[in-house]
Design brief:
Structural class of chain A: alpha+beta
Distance between the termini of chain A: 32 Å
Largest interface: A-B, 69 and 46 residues
Number of strands of chain A: 15
Oligomer: heterodimer
Number of helices of chain A: 22
Structural class of chain B: alpha+beta
Largest sheet of chain B: 8 strands, mixed
Distance between the termini of chain B: 42 Å
Strand order of the largest sheet of chain B: 2-3-4-8-5-6-7-9
Shape of chain A: globular
């Protein structure tokens, strides 16, 4: 790997090059890390000791009804409103086209009064068919993992703790199928949340908090139903098992256009993650203490991967390979007493191990240095402006495209495979879908997501224009060719970023949108990726995270790659992979 | 009894308008700018949605029109907009002015055959954030409209037309310079000392409306909202059993 020296806040850092990092399979190998949104949110909740109290708990014996949590954060007060309704098993569907769900919920500003609660009760269960006002930040829904839920409630009601091994197969009681924010359906715009509500001013913080409270409710409901079922024998879920429960998530193509339509934000997220890695490699001590930390993290990662179950053959093979290579790393670490720095390890990994293993190692390195990394989580936002630079000579634009978008120009769009796919919006809830060119209907309504092809076509038009009018500027070019306006300003704006565009032809015959989804989910902080096809992936959020009941207690922020608690003679115990944080 | 209104967010109104204009056949950069233009005007209480409602039949003409430069010299560029609307082509006109102002200190873009000229304000406001100063003036119903815009302040004034040497009712002039003094010097050659503005809107008062819209949402006539939602259908592909296969939970 050849790194580029970049000056970041007065320090010369060797960032990995865009040609390596921005390849889609590489981005699709990322994992949760310290600056992922769930991690930074939980740090904030724990350090600021947010208060989360139940202000309404109106469930019937079947667990159906309304629950409201009153949230007092550092800078404001909010309400989490959840409706639990009976769902006909025949209607339980994770697709965006579903119309009913087990749970529906909303995160609102302030304290909801009776009239607002009544209005929410009418609208929230309808989800996309409902209307909301700007006091609502987030809308979401979840479906029950019936097998896991029924098992857990049955065990608890009969006085037993569920077996960790059974839980590890799924890892959650409910899974979300959509989390909406940013002004959808009349809700508050991101501009409002960002400027007026500091508690949620980081990207997707309100959405992530909604999922955290959903996880809390799912655990409360399981205890509640066990008690309803058998008051005489029921026990509560053990806290160590509770921590091992996350919230499931099913993500499909709906998430993919966001990454393409927000290139500056994605480039920033990647740059901050890479900055964290570069800082650790250059400044992180690799003495005996940190070698021991890494040994423990490697053991934990191997245990975690061993618990990850997926039906996808490719993912199963990759997990096995990463496990094997992590074992090799463990053996190598056992022989070391002290290193000068981590560079030699990173180079070795790059030369010998799978990219997925490389990114696991990078995640572990980032994990060990909270003092270096955690302050970076304040830098994950960016004000997005794709402004045109109209006075730029067209010849200069040509050079910019050649230098910054050479990856796009290298794709031959005359080859049929290179534009065999098109993205379109279905009339069913505007769901993005993929079609096969020349086969499926709707090609003329293609969504403009093929950045590489747009750049390539724009470049051809620029060259043609220059051959006729060599002294034109960009303003003259886009006036004559307005169909290239969006691409020109995108190229100009992204040329100012370090990482630029995701380097992938998204209309290739074999495009794997799953990598886009995985990349975004990793930045969210999800784990246990379980691909269901090349188009959608199941995953788990908040597995291993502290519980609401843990707020106010000591918090070590070490829930990366969680491992199931073990049953010992003293009861259930969370495995010891901990190290004291400074 | 007033018309029924629906409260919408900025983001969903921008998204809806982008899809409507995409359905009209405008290319991506153009419809992005147009949607933002309409919403900015509406949020700043400048009747962006009413102007859009009036413009819809022209915007949906079936073949989008774009401006073309007729003549140009060092400072003056003459453009024919061929009846295009400032909602969709305002950005292209302003960018031409920006480019020339940066290279020559002062640019005057005279536009012919341009519709919905009041919708130029947002594009001027947007471009002024890059450090340029602007003025635009046009004749409408016997009244001269003049707007000046810098990154710090903006006003929109109207004048009695008598003292202004202006062209026909579909023309507009855009003046741009890195220096507001240069823009003002040009205006002084146009504006006689006895000219008195009849009305005046400042950016300060616009900002209040914008913040209220962010806080509480934007009120949209329910009929117009329904009309726009129907237009979105043009960019949607009918669902088939085969198209549902493998799209994932989304």
């Amino acid at each position: 790997m050849i790194a580029d020296a970049v000056n970041v806040a007065g320090t010369e850092l060797n960032l990995r090059p865009a040609s390596l990092v921005m390849q889609l399979p590489r981005l699709g190998s990322f994992h949760q890390c310290r600056i992922s949104f769930m991690r930074s949110l939980i740090r904030r909740v724990m350090s600021e000791q947010w208060s989360i109290e139940t202000s309404l708990f109106d469930l019937d014996a079947g667990g159906y009804g309304t629950v409201v949590y009153d949230v007092r954060a550092a800078h404001g007060r909010y309400s989490f409103v959840l409706f639990s309704n009976y769902l006909d098993p025949e209607l339980r569907n994770d697709r965006v086209i579903a119309t009913q769900w087990d749970l529906t919920m909303a995160l609102c500003e302030g304290v909801v009064d009776e009239s607002q609660l009544a209005a929410l009760k009418k609208q929230v269960p309808k989800q996309e068919a409902g209307r909301f006002d700007s006091r609502v930040f987030v809308l979401s829904r979840a479906n029950r993992s019936v097998r896991n839920f029924d098992y857990v409630v049955r065990e608890l009601s009969e006085g037993r703790q569920p077996e960790a091994e059974v839980i590890s197969r799924i890892g959650y009681l409910y899974r979300t199928t959509a989390v909406y924010g940013s002004g959808k359906l009349g809700m508050a715009d991101w501009e409002k949340v960002n400027s007026k509500f500091r508690d949620f001013s980081r990207p997707f913080a309100a959405e992530m908090f909604t999922c955290y409270l959903l996880r809390h409710f799912s655990l409360v409901q399981a205890d509640y139903l066990a008690l309803q079922k058998s008051p005489a024998t029921a026990v509560s879920l053990d806290p160590s098992l509770k921590r091992y429960f996350g919230i499931g998530n099913a993500t499909g193509l709906g998430m993919a256009p966001y990454l393409i339509n927000h290139p500056q934000l994605v480039a920033r997220w990647v740059e901050i993650r890479e900055t964290a890695l570069a800082m650790v490699i250059q400044s992180g001590s690799a003495n005996a203490e940190y070698l021991e930390r890494l040994r423990q993290l490697v053991r934990k990662t191997i245990a975690h991967l061993g618990e990850a179950i997926t039906e996808d053959k490719d993912q199963t093979a990759v997990n096995a390979l990463v496990c094997a290579e992590m074992n090799e790393l463990g053996q190598w670490l056992a022989e070391q007493t002290c290193l000068e720095d981590w560079q030699s390890l990173v180079i070795w990994a790059d030369e010998h191990w799978h990219p997925q293993t490389q990114e696991v190692i990078n995640t572990l390195l980032i994990e060990m240095y909270p003092e270096l990394v955690d302050p970076l989580d304040e830098s994950m936002s960016v004000v997005e402006h794709l402004d045109l630079m109209p006075s730029m000579p067209l010849a200069e634009l040509k050079t910019v495209i050649e230098q910054k978008s050479e990856w796009a120009l290298a794709i031959d769009f005359e080859q049929p495979d290179n534009q065999n796919t098109f993205w379109y919006r279905s009339e069913e809830k505007l769901e993005p879908r993929l079609g096969e060119s020349g086969v499926d209907p709707g090609e003329e309504l293609e969504m403009p997501l093929a950045a590489a092809r747009s750049i390539s076509r724009c470049y051809e038009a620029v060259c043609d224009n220059l051959s006729r009018r060599p002294v034109d500027d960009v303003a003259h070019f886009v006036l004559n060719a307005p169909e290239h306006l969006a691409t020109v300003r995108r190229v100009q704006a992204m040329a100012k970023t370090y990482y630029g565009e995701i380097r992938e032809n998204l209309v290739h015959k074999n495009v794997l949108p799953m990598h886009l989804l995985r990349c975004k989910l990793a930045f969210f902080g999800a784990n246990k990726f379980d691909p269901k096809s090349r188009l959608w992936v199941r995953n788990t959020m908040y597995q291993g995270a502290p519980l609401v009941e843990d707020i106010g207690s000591r918090f070590d922020d070490n829930w990366l790659f969680p491992v199931a608690p073990q049953l010992t003679t003293q009861g259930l115990i969370e495995p010891e992979f901990k190290w004291e944080q400074k | 009894m007033g018309a029924k209104v629906i409260r919408v967010s900025r983001n969903e109104l921008v998204s809806l308008l982008k899809r409507v204009l995409e359905g009209f056949g405008y290319p991506v950069g153009i419809y992005e700018d147009a949607a933002r233009t309409v919403v900015w005007h509406e949020m700043n209480e400048l009747d962006g949605l009413e102007e859009l409602r009036l413009a819809l039949p022209e915007l949906d003409s079936g073949s989008p029109v774009f401006p073309e430069i007729m003549t140009e010299d060092e400072n003056l560029i003459v453009v024919d907009a061929y009846g295009g609307s400032c909602i969709t082509v305002g950005g292209l006109l302003v960018e031409i002015a920006c480019a020339r102002a940066i290279s020559n200190d002062l640019a005057i873009v005279q536009v012919r055959n341009c519709r919905h000229r009041c919708m130029i304000l947002e594009r001027l406001h947007n471009a002024s954030q890059r450090g340029l100063s602007f003025a635009a003036y046009w004749l409408d119903n016997g009244v001269v409209n003049l707007t000046t815009m810098t990154d710090a302040a903006g006003v929109w004034m109207t004048y009695d037309a008598e003292n202004w040497p202006l062209g026909n009712s579909d023309s507009m002039s855009i003046v741009s310079s890195p220096s507001m003094m240069s823009v003002q010097s040009h205006l002084n050659t146009m504006l006689s000392p006895e000219s008195r503005s009849q009305s005046r809107i400042t950016v300060g008062s616009m900002q209040t409306g914008y913040e209220r819209a962010i806080e509480q949402g934007i009120s949209v006539d329910e009929d117009l909202w329904g009309q726009l939602e129907k237009l979105v259908a043009r960019i949607l592909v009918p669902a088939t059993q085969s198209s549902r296969t493998g799209a994932g939970p989304g």
